[in-house]
Amino acid sequence: MSFFWVLSGKRLKKIALIVIAFLFATGIYYAENNDIQVFYPLSKDPSAIYSVKTDKKQVALTFDISWGEERTGPILDVLQQKGLKKATFFLSSPWAETHPDLVKRIVDMKYEIGSHGHRHDNYSSYTEEQIRTQIQKADTILTKLTGKKPNLIRFPNGDFDKRVLRISDQMGYKTIQWDTDSLDWKNPGVDKIIKRVTSKVHPGDIILMHASDSCRQTHEALPVIIDQLRAQGYEFVTVSDLIAGSNVKMDPVE
């Protein structure tokens, strides 16, 4: 919450000083600009990141994996064939545990790895203890398999609430969503996946795709998507690259 006060004249000086002292004492920040004093909270609730604000034509391709072993390989083949050196994979830890060879390939290709949680469930329905347990289980497994602790998380089904965001933030994670959803999980047809991504993409975009077995058309649409975005002048970077170089777009959670 922000408070705006316009203070003018000597009669309000005393009141202003009292108010300022009170706001500082209660943890609210004070900034002065000529005759207008603006008060901001010192702390904000953590938010999910959907995209970044940037003038650079950069986007992050992201892939969620929660089950199966037939689609990840072909997708990695496409990325390799296209010479795409940067992408971000969000791995479900049970999948990662049962497919260490594919995890190793992703690591060897030097792609960024984030957590997709442990159980593929809506964490907003969990108690706080259960939320912590699910995040920590995934953290432990992914750290062991990849040799690096993840610091990005995309929750199963994109589901979270304020508690989930707060707990993940306390555990050292940034919650990542997306601005462009390819809807590849619906298998709507290769052309529709291509059109949806290439028509909605924008600088600083986080693009959601999947590498689970249920998504049968992603590896066919991906080469064209990469070619068309490159033709539009886009550079592919990781989610962390986007965050490091730009202002993130965060949507409030009700």
Number of contiguous helices = 9
User: Kindly, what is the distance between the CA atoms of the first and last residues, rounded to a whole number of angstroms?
Assistant: 14 Å
In CATH's first tier, which class of the largest domain applies? Answer: Alpha Beta
Helix-strand pattern:
EHEEEEHEHHEHEHEEHEHEHE
The CATH superfamily title of the largest domain: Glycoside hydrolase/deacetylase
Structural class: alpha/beta
What would the CATH topology of the largest domain be? Answer: TIM Barrel
The general outline is: globular
Contiguous low-pLDDT stretches (5 residues minimum) are: 1-43
Count of domain modules? 2
Mean pLDDT: 86
CATH architecture of the largest domain: Alpha-Beta Barrel
**Radius of gyration from the CA trace?**
22 Å
Overall helicity: 25-40%
* Biggest sheet layout: 6 strands, parallel
**Overall number of strands:** 13
* Amount of beta strand: 15-25%
State the main characteristics:
globular, PdaB-like, 3-stranded antiparallel sheet, hydrolase activity, acting on carbon-nitrogen (but not peptide) bonds, Glyco_hydro/deAcase_b/a-brl, membrane, alpha/beta, 9 helices, transmembrane helix, 13 strands, TIM Barrel, 2 domains
